[in-house]
Amino acid sequence: MFFTTPAYEGLPLVMVRLAAVTVERLAELVTDAWRMRAPQDLLAGLDDELAGRAVGP
Question: What is the domain extent for residue 36?
Fold first, then answer.
């Protein structure tokens, strides 16, 4: 599912085969990548929004 190629060697990235990943997993990957680069005030807003969507007891 994940791969890299010599053309991208040394760059901080990993590629993903879209046909092999679920929408849920892709959303998780994009969110995690965004969290690593986002400013703290935006992170707090996302955490608040996600907490409001929490399902379960």
Answer: 2-53
Q: For 27-36, b where at least 16 C-beta lie within 10 A, e where not — what string? A: eeeeeeeeee
DSSP 13: -
Residues 21-49 pLDDT 10s: 999 999 999 988 888 888 888 888 777 77
In terms of Cβ atoms closer than 10 Å to its own Cβ (0-12, 13-18, 19+), residue 18 is exposed
Residue 15: partners with Cβ closer than 8 Å, 6 or more residues away? 2, 3, 4, 5, 8
pTM equals: 0.62
Q: Are 29 and 14 in contact (CB under 8 A)?
A: no
User: How many structural domains does the chain have?
Assistant: 1
